[in-house]
Amino acid sequence: MSFLAFFLIVMSLLSFVVAQLVLKRAVAFPAKIGLSSPRFIWLFALGVLLMTISFFITLGLLQRFALSYLYPFQGLSVIMIVVMAAVVLKEKLTIQLMIGSLLITAGIVLVSMTY
Amino acid sequence: MQNRLSGFGNPWLQLTVSVVCVFVSELLLKRGATEVAEPDSAWSWTGVNGLASPLVWWAILLIIASFISWLYVLRYIPITIAYPVSRIVDVLVPLGCWIFLGEFISPLRWSGIALVVIGLALVAKPVAQIEQRL
Description:
Order of helices and strands of chain B: HHHHH
Oligomer: heterodimer
Radius of gyration of chain B: 17 Å
Helix content of chain B: over 70%
Distance between the termini of chain B: 10 Å
Helix content of chain A: over 70%
Number of strands of chain B: 0
Distance between the termini of chain A: 12 Å
Mean pLDDT of chain A: 84
């Protein structure tokens, strides 16, 4: 794998993780504020933009690598999202959830390393 | 989860819809991106030339559907639970590649898939207990 490919995989992953946290914030609005609030629109647009960037980078990578090799890198997003949601969004993080997330991450990385 | 909704509005059903759409879209993207691949072109790193394939457009429709379901899921389920559970797709995709695209799964890769399944059970178990009590 070239440096460029590695860089693009990391960029695709990071933009995806940040997009998920931004979108969670966007939809967590109280029902009375609704979809027309500028806060929702701004966060939603930012989340969609980040996901779009991640999508096109992935599409470019798919033209060079097998899906079953490339896709599991997304597995790292599990542990990144769980930890960042606990830190940034103050979501509850139990030991069981942490171990489960680590196993999912390890499993996905293992799948990707056996190509 | 305080607003536990039933029927089509059930966030767990929506999570399933989202996962199935992502699974099918990944297989379509791989087929579509491969059939129009031009690895020698500098532009192909951006992935934009993938849009020449109809399969990629079908995949985009499924991604939009999964995205709408996912936003609904995010509203009702904590992301620390919803996101790890949604990664069941990481088991489904290699299995789908094996069944539909003829890609090989080594014993080590099967072990990775097993780890993901155990991890999913650990993440989902407390949620299932909460649901049962309600």
